[in-house]
Known about the structure:
Elements: H1 2-12, H2 22-74, H3 91-96, E1 98-99, E2 107-108, E3 126-128, E4 146-148
Antiparallel strand pairs: 1-2, 3-4
Amino acid sequence: MLANTRRRLRVRRIPDQAGMTLIELIIACAILLILASAALPIARFTVIRTKESELHRDLREMRDAIDRYKDAADRNQIRVELGSEGYPPDLETLVKGVQLGASSDKKIRFLRRIPTDPMTGQAEWGLRAVQDDPDSTSWGGKNVFDVYSKSQGVAQDGTKYSDW
C-alpha cells in the first residue's frame, strides 16, 4: 500500500517549474543597479570630454581663419581698413568673404560658418583686439585678433574654458 501511495504522489506532483525565485530576482536587480551606477559617471565624462574636444577644434578653426585673413592682408591680396593692422573687423567678415584685389570680382572666404560654442550652445564668442589686454573680457570693437569661449565653466584639467 505504501508503494501505491508513492506512485500516486508522483503522478499528482507538479513538475519543477523553471524560473526565478523572488530572492534571485532581487539579487539580479541589485547587480544591474550597481553596474548601471558605475557606468553613469563614465558616460558623463565622455560627454564632457567630447564637448571639450569640439571647443578646441572650433577655437583652432576660427583662429586659423583669422591667421589666414591676416596673411592675405599682409601679402596685399585683400583690401583692409586703415588702422585694422590686417585683422578682420568681425567674425562675420570671415564667413561673408572679401574681394581679392581691387580689380578682381573673386571673393575669398575663410570660414563656412561661425561655429556654435559647445559649452554655451550659442554662436556667440568672446573677441579680443590687438589693442586689448590679453586677459580682457571686453572687445575694443575694431578688429578681431583672438576668440575665446564665453562659458564660465571649468574644464576637467582645472582651467577655465574662457582661458583656452
